[in-house]
Amino acid sequence: MFNPEDLVLEAKHVTRKFPAAGGRTLTACDDISLNLYRGKTLGLVGESGCGKSTFMRFIVSLDTPTEGEILFKGRDITKMKGEELRQVRQHIQMVFQDPTGSMNPKMKIRDTICEPLLNFNRISKSEVDAKARELLEMVELPGDFADRFPHNMSGGQRQRVAIARAIALEPEIIIMDEATSALDVSVQKTVIELITRLQREHNIAIGFIAHDLGLIQSFAHQIAVMYLGNIVEVMPGADIDKCDHPYTHALMGAIFDTKMDFSKKIESIEGEPPSPLDVPPGCPFQNRCDCCKERCKQEKPSLVEVGPNHQVACHMFR
Question: Is 169 buried (19+), middle (13-18) or exposed (0-12) by CB count in 10 A?
Answer without folding.
Answer: middle
